Automatic annotation (TrEMBL):
Gene3D superfamilies: Hypothetical protein ph0010, domain 1, Hypothetical protein ph0010, domain 2. It comes from the Bacteria. It holds the Pfam family AMMECR1. Residues 2-172 form the AMMECR1 domain. This is AMMECR1 domain-containing protein. It comes from Kosmotoga arenicorallina S304.
Length: 172
């Protein structure tokens, strides 16, 4: 299934163009207005059909002029530049499920303001930063959410670090 949302359909078009044809797609004129006028951070996540993660890359804040550009570049990065995985092959494309998370602007908060089902979390200390999306399987407590994101950031729990939270609308 190629997805019902315009975000996921666009991510599929991007990956098919880039992975199958080797063509970096330009932004087409026919995309819905929300993709060509809105700016937001987003994550593009690839899963195998068995649920295993296959790639996830994103931006917390917008780095491009439009959401279409943000999704395009994050989809390609998720498929080809996630350091945890080898680049996605043409043969794997049919066995992938894509989700796109559109993020709200992060707000600084305290540990007490977190809820792993509702909020994603960012931790920062100096140049180190970790991000964890909300509502992930098996991340059911604030403690687990913070433990995972601190490891991702290379920050120990005893250090003084900043916490930010954000919401994300996830589309399949």
């Amino acid at each position: 299934m190629k997805g019902n949302s315009p975000y996921v359909r666009w991510a599929w078009e991007v990956l098919e163009s880039f992975i199958i044809k080797g063509v970096y797609p330009e932004i087409p004129d026919f995309l819905p207005e929300e993709l060509t006028t809105k700016r937001a951070g987003c994550f593009v996540t690839l899963h195998k059909k068995n649920g295993d993660l296959r790639g996830c890359i994103g931006t917390v804040l917008p780095t491009k002029g439009t959401l279409a550009e943000e999704i395009r570049d994050n989809a390609i990065a998720s498929a080809t530049r996630d350091p945890r995985f080898s680049p996605l092959s043409k043969d794997e494309l049919d066995s992938i499920i894509i989700s796109v998370d559109i993020l709200s602007e992060p707000e600084e908060c305290s540990k007490e303001d977190l809820d792993p089902k509702k909020y994603g979390v960012i931790v920062e200390k100096d140049w180190r930063r970790g991000v964890l999306l909300p509502d992930l399987p098996e991340v059911d407590t604030v403690e687990k959410q913070l433990r995972i994101v601190l490891i991702k950031a290379g920050i120990s729990s005893g250090e003084d670090f900043k916490i930010f939270r954000f919401t994300a609308n996830r589309y399949y």
